# Entry
Amino acid sequence: MRNVIIQSLLYGSLTLGVWTALFGIYFHHNNVKNQEKKIQTKGNPLIWSLGEKLQEQSIHGSMQIRRPRERLNEDETEEQKPISVLGEDFNYTDTELIYGYMKYGFNHIVSKSLGNYRNVPDSRNKMCHQKHYPANLPTASIIICFHNEEFNALLRTVSSIMTLTPHHIIEEIILVDDMSEYDDLKEKLDYHLEIFRGKIKVIRNKKREGLIRARLVGASRASGDILVFLDSHCEVNKIWLEPLLDAIVKDPKMVVCPIMDVIDYVTLEYKPSPVVRGVFNWHLQFEWDRVFSYEMDGPDGPTRPIRSPAMVGGLFAIHRHYFNEIGQYDKGMNLWGGENLELSLRIWMCGGQLFLLPCSRVGHINKPYFTNQGEIKKAMAYNNLRIVHVWLDEYKEQFFLQNPRLKSLAYGNVSERVELRKRLGCKSFQWYLDTVFPELETSNSI
# Structure
C-alpha cells in the first residue's frame, strides 16, 4: 500500500510538472509571436466552435451510448485536461504543435499540410447509393459562422461544399466572421475566396456576438429556400445536401441533420460514425444514444430517417420560413451552448419533427476542452436556465435536483419566449416525454 501511495504521488507530481512546463511553453510562444494578438478568453475559438466530442462507446445498463465531451455545468469542478486526450505518444517538446492546439483546438500542422481540399471516404451505407433525388430541389443558403478559426480548416469547409454539391442548389454560402482577430482571416481569406465569387457572401460583425446571434445575422441575410447551418471546421461528403433538401420538400416542418462523422483532432483522419440519435440528460447535457433496432427495420433498412429527440448544434437544415415562424433562436441566450436543445424542444413541442438522415454525411473536427473556462460555464448555465423556465414546466424541479446551485441564478427576461410558446400553441413537456423521449424519465430517474 505504501508503494502504491508513493507511486501515485510521483505520478501526480510528474503530471503537474508536465503541465506547468506546457503552459509555460505556450505563453512564451504566444508572447514571441508579436504579429498576433494575445488570445483572450472572450476571443478563444474553443468558446463556441467546439464540436461535440464523440467518445468511445460505454455501457449504461443494457444500452450502449456514444457520449460527446460533456459540457460543463455550474456544479462541476473537474477540468478536462489535455494530458488525458493527447495521449502518451504526443510530442510535448514541439512548441509549435502545442501552441496550435491551444490556439485552435486541433493539429494545425496536419491541417496546413492537407491544404484547402482533400478527398474523404464515402461513409454512406451502400443502400444510399441507390437513392435518387429530384432535379428541381429548393435552393440552400449555407451559413457558416467563425471566430478565430484555423485558416485551412475553414477553407476546406467551403471547398468541400463547392466541390461536392451541385451549384444550382446552392443559393449562397454565407460566412459570418464574428470579430476574428487573426490576420489570415481577413484580406488573405478574401483573396482565396475569389475563386468562389458569386456564391460567397462574407459578413464581418462589428462586435463579438457569439455563435447564437452570429447565426441570426447570417440567417437575416439569407435568400435561399432552406437554411443549412454548418460549423467552420467541417468537410461534407458525397451527395450530402440532396437528402436534406428532399426531406424538407416533403414536410416543410421537418428539421433534418446529417450524420456527423468524426475528423480526429490529432490526426485529422476522417472516421465514419455509426447511426446514432441525439438525446440529453437532466443536466441538459447533449449525448449520443444508440438507435433502436426496430427503427432500422423495413425496406429502407439503414437508410431510414431516424427520429431524434434532440439535435447536435453544429449541423442542421430547416426551411427558412419555418425557422422564422417558430421563433428562430432565443436572442436572449449568451455566447454558445443550450441553443440546440432549446430549438429541439421547440420543434417537437410546437408541431414540427426532427430527424437524422443516415444518407447525409458531414465530417466534423471534434475539439476537446483544453481549459475549463468560466465564461463558457456561465453562458451555458444562463442559457440552460432559460430553457428550464420556458419549456420544462413542472419538470424543472428535476433539473434543479441535479443542479441545486443554479436555482438562484439570474436568467434574464423570458417573457417573450413564454409568449412565443403560447402563440405557437405548443404542447407540454409531459407530452414530449410521453411521445418523443420517454427514456429520459426512466434512464435518468431521480
About this structure: The domain at 43-446 is CATH 3.90.550.10 (Spore Coat Polysaccharide Biosynthesis Protein SpsA; Chain A).
